[in-house]
Amino acid sequence: MLQMTSLYWLYAGVALIVLEVMTPGLVSLFFGLSALTVALLVWLFPSLGQGWQWLMFSLFSVVYILLLRKSLKKVFSGDREVSAGVNDEFTGKLAVVVERVGPNRPGRVEFAGSTWKAESDQVLEAGTPARILGKQNLTVRIGPV
The whole model's pTM is what? Predict the structure, then answer.
């Protein structure tokens, strides 16, 4: 029977994580993380028996699946944003209106060296400064300063 060493657990962990990258499902990632955890434990405690290694591999796999799968699945499926503030680089910054903006009439603003499609609940004339309230795709929502 193959004697599992920390190096074999490391190889197994990396192989399982690579397999996850190549196949959908978000399952082998947790087995890979478990194998890497066992590799670390076997490296720290080389006298750990094979039975204990496989038991820890099984337990860590279940723990990782229970703790991480639901939240990671939301991130990878797009149901949840990775960052809490996706508008951070735009929101609150000043822009200059280059094409008149009004309710139900999109215009354009200049911000960070580029022009952006802009929407506003108020009429803002070209040349006036505006504050960026948010961003959705390539459109910024603006308001008066």
Answer: 0.52
